[in-house]
Amino acid sequence: MNTIHTSEGPIRIRVAFFDTKPYDRDYFDTHKNNYNVEIKYFPVKLSADTASLARGYDAVCAFVNDELDAPTADILVADGVKLVALRCAGYNNVDLKAVWGRLHVVRVPAYSPHAVAEHAVALLLTLNRKIHKAYIRTREGNFTLSGLVGFDLYGKTAGIVGTGQIGRIAAEIFRGFGMEVLASDPYPNEGWAAEKGVRYTTMEELFRQSDVISLHCPLTPENHHLINEARLGMIKKNAVIINTGRGALIDTKALIHALKTNSLGGAALDVYEEEDEYFFEDHSTSVIKDDVLARLLTFPNVLITGHQAFLTHEALTAIATTTLGNIQNYFESGDLTNEICYRCTQKTCSRKETGRCF
Ligand code: NAI
C-alpha cells in the first residue's frame, strides 16, 4: 500500500508540476481541492538540469516537451519521486526502458479526442479556404478575392493514418463532408469501418489516392519520418497533409523540398519535429534561429499552430481531473490503471492478446 501516513494520519501528496502555463494552473487549481494533493508549480521544463527541483516531492507532473530520459530519471529516483504523471496522451518524450521498474509513469489516455480531431479539421478548412488570409485582408479593408480559391471537400478522398480515438473521429467528420475515407492502421477496426463507410487500405494506396492526408498515429521509433521523401513522391500533387500527431512523423526537410517543387498542395501542422525549442513560448521579439522552421513559415500554403489541438475547455478539464485522479489513485491504493507499459511497447505484455494493454 502506498498511502503516505504520518503519526497524525494521511498527508497530502506533494506534486512538482513542470512547464506550467497559465491555463494549466487555472484548471488544476479549479479541481485540486477535490483531491488529496498539494501542487508546487514550476515554469521550467523537466530535464536533467531541473529534475532536482522535485526533491522532496512524491510525484512529478510533466507535459509533452518535458524530457524524461535516463539522466532525468536517475535524479528523480535518487530524490525519492515515485510517480511521473504525464498530463498528456503521447509519451514519446519518455525513455520507457530507462524508467520501467524504477518510476511509474502514468498518462491521460483520452481527454478529448474530439478536441484534437476538430482542430485537424479546422486546420484543413482554414488552409484550404484561406480563412487566415481573408481575415487579415478584411481587417485592413481589402475585400478582394484573388488568391483565395480553395476546393470542395465533398467528393474528395481523405486518408487517415491511425484509426485510434482521434483518427476515428476525424474520419467520421470527413465522412460528414461527403468525403470518401481511406484508413491505415496495423490494428484495423473493421466493425467501425463498415459502420461508418470507411475503407482500410495499404499505406501506399492511401498516399496515392488521398486528397487530404491526416496523421493520427503515435510517434514511435517505427513511425519516425513516416512521411519521408519516398512517400511524398507518392502523394497527389495537390494533396494537403495535416499533422496533429507528432512533428517527427514528418521529415520536415523532405516536406520543404516537396513544397518548393510544387509537388504538394499544402501542409497544416500543429506539431513540428524540433518544436520543443520554440512551441509554447513567445519568441515574437527574437530571431528564429531554426532555419527549417523559419523556411516552413514562409510558404503561403503552410499553416502552423503551436501544438494547440488539445486546447479546449473540455480537454483541459479532463486532463486536470484524470491527472489528479491518477496521482491520488496510485498513492492511496496502488492503482496504476493509466500506467504506460514498457512491455506493451515491446509487444511482450501478457495483459492483452493484442500486445497492447492500454
Ligand atoms: P490511439 O492510441 O487511440 O490511436 C493511435 C492509433 O495509431 C492506433 O490505432 C495505432 O494502432 C495506430 N498506429 C500506430 N502506428 C501506426 C502506423 N505506422 N500507421 C498507421 N496507424 C498506426 O491514440 P490517439 O489518442 O488517437 O492519439 C494519436 C496521437 O495524437 C497521440 O499519440 C499523440 O501523439 C497525438 N496527440 C496530439 C495532440 C495535440 O494536441 N496535437 C493531443 C493528443 C494526442
Annotation keywords:
seven-stranded parallel sheet, alpha/beta, 358 residues, single chain, 13 helices, 2 domains, binds 1,4-dihydronicotinamide adenine dinucleotide, five-stranded parallel sheet, Rossmann fold
Task: Summarize the structure in words.
By secondary structure, the chain is of the alpha/beta class. The chain folds into two domains: 5-111 and 312-354, 3-Layer(aba) Sandwich (Rossmann fold); 113-304, NAD(P)-binding Rossmann-like Domain (Rossmann fold, 3-Layer(aba) Sandwich), CATH 3.40.50.720. The protein is built from 13 helices and 14 strands. A hairpin with a 2-residue loop joins strand 1 (5-6) and strand 2 (9-10). Helix 1 (22-31) packs across helix 12 (313-333) and helix 4 (113-129) crosses helix 6 (165-176). 1,4-dihydronicotinamide adenine dinucleotide (NAI) binds at residues 89-90, 110, 113, 116, 161-167, 184-187, 216-219, 223, 226, 244-246, 270-271, 307, 309-310.
Small molecules (ligands, ions, cofactors) in the structure: 1,4-dihydronicotinamide adenine dinucleotide
Largest sheet, strands/sense/barrel: 7 strands, parallel
User: Would you tell me the structural class of the helices and strands?
Assistant: alpha/beta
The dominant shape is globular
Question: Roughly what fraction of the amino acids lie in strands?
Answer: 5-15%
CATH topology name of the largest domain: Rossmann fold
The CATH architecture of the largest domain can be named as 3-Layer(aba) Sandwich
Along the chain, the helix and strand elements come as EEEHEEHEHEHHEHEHEHEHEHEHEHH
Unreliable runs: none
Please report the number of helical segments.
13
Q: Briefly, what CATH class of the largest domain?
A: Alpha Beta
Indicate how many domains the architecture comprises: 2
* CATH homologous superfamily descriptor of the largest domain: NAD(P)-binding Rossmann-like Domain
- The rounded Rg comes to 22 Å
Strand order of the largest sheet: 10-9-8-11-12-13-14
The number of strands is 14
Distance between the termini: 23 Å
| Overall mean confidence score, pLDDT | 94
Helix content: 25-40%
